[in-house]
């Protein structure tokens, strides 16, 4: 899965991260293209294995070409500028793009500025809040 040339020409943002296994002390710095159209981050299998990350499942994905691909997934800790968060990652194979997806961005509270195309902290986090239906007393007027 290589990236469409239009993405490279648009100057898609990049992010430098530190990755480590959930239960590990070994970490590695990596520079990834930020892809807000990808739910999960795709990290080269060799990088994940060197950190001791083990696949926990195999999922089906529809990739940029429209084809279906089956890939191992696992969990890691991502760190950026003093912030850290667990995130689910895809074990990218040879030919797959290495990208940082929205699951990782959201976990760290990050977004891509639509004007400057730079990664930044969100000013506020989105939340869906359901209003509680409160029964109000009926006031009888005379």
Give the SSE layout.
Blueprint: H1 5-9, E1 14-21, E2 27-34, E3 41-44, H2 45-50, E4 57-62, E5 68-80, E6 83-92, E7 99-100, H3 102-108, E8 110-112, E9 119-121
Output the structural class: mainly beta
Number of discrete domains: 1
Mean pLDDT across the residues is 86
CATH topology label:
Cathepsin D, subunit A, domain 1
Strand content: 35-45%
Largest sheet: 7 strands, mixed
Instruction: Give the helix proportion (percent range).
Output: 10-25%
How far apart are the first and last residues' alpha carbons, in Å? 74 Å
| Poorly predicted tracts of residues | 1-9
- At CATH level 2, the architecture is Beta Barrel
Anisotropy-based shape:
globular
Give a count of the beta strands, DSSP E runs of length 2 or more. 9
CATH superfamily: Acid Proteases
Number of helical regions? 3
CATH class: Mainly Beta
Computed Rg: 20 Å
Oligomer: single chain
Order of helices and strands: HEEEHEEEEHEE
How would you describe this structure to a colleague?
The chain is mainly beta and 142 residues long. The protein has a single domain (5-121), classed as Beta Barrel (Cathepsin D, subunit A, domain 1), CATH 2.40.70. It has helices spanning 5-9, 45-50, 102-108; strands at 14-21, 27-34, 41-44, 57-62, 68-80, 83-92, 99-100, 110-112, 119-121. Strands 1, 2, 3, 4, 5, 6 and 7 form a seven-stranded mixed β-sheet that branches. The chain has a two-stranded antiparallel sheet with strand order 8-9. The protein is globular, with a radius of gyration of 20 Å. 23% of the residues are buried.
């Amino acid at each position: 899965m290589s990236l469409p040339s239009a993405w490279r020409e648009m100057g898609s943002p990049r992010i430098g991260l530190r990755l480590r296994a959930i239960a590990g002390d070994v970490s590695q710095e990596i520079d990834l293209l930020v892809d807000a159209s990808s739910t999960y981050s795709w990290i080269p299998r060799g990088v994940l294995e060197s950190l001791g990350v083990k696949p926990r499942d195999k999922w089906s994905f529809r990739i940029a070409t429209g084809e279906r691909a089956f890939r191992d997934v696992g969990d890691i800790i991502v760190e950026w500028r003093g912030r850290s968060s667990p995130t689910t990652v895809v074990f990218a194979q040879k030919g797959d793009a290495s990208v940082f997806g929205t699951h990782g961005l959201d976990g760290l509270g990050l977004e891509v500025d639509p004007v400057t195309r730079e990664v930044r902290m969100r000013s506020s986090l989105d939340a869906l809040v359901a209003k509680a239906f409160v029964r109000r007393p009926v006031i009888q007027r005379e």
